[in-house]
Design a protein that fits this description.
The protein is of the alpha+beta class. The chain contains 2 helices and 6 strands; from the N terminus they run E-E-E-E-E-E-H-H. The protein has a 4-stranded antiparallel sheet with strand order 1-2-3-6.
Length: about 110
């Protein structure tokens, strides 16, 4: 099973690395073996990542990985992250950098391969 991976670094007053890994579509739900994950890493310890797993209590971490299993879950995660990024760039205004075309630059048009 091929796993497609990529990562990018983002800098401002903090340094954050984002990495993605996925099997791509595997023909259905989690039982077909497909999975997708995104990992955010606090590269220089200055991003202040806090995680709450539904307990109402946060834990400070230097890395967090979110994994979903299944084809639809991969698409829904991608759409949710795209929406969140667009909304945050709207709120940040001119300070935020547009990433239009970034996916095509990383994967190539029509990629990752199925």
């Amino acid at each position: 099973m091929a796993v497609h991976r990529d990562e990018a670094a983002f800098e401002d007053a903090c340094h954050l690395k984002a990495a993605v890994a996925t099997t791509g579509e595997m023909g259905g739900d989690a039982g077909h073996g497909g999975w997708t994950e995104i990992t955010l890493t606090n590269v220089e310890g200055n991003c202040g990542i806090e995680v709450d797993v539904g307990t109402g209590h946060t834990t400070v971490v230097d890395q967090v990985t979110l994994r979903v299993r299944g084809d639809a879950e991969m698409v829904v995660l991608a759409n949710a992250l795209d929406w969140a990024g667009r909304r945050l760039r709207e709120i940040a205004g001119d300070r935020a950098e547009s990433l239009d075309g970034e996916a095509d630059a990383v994967w190539g048009v029509g990629q990752p391969p199925t």
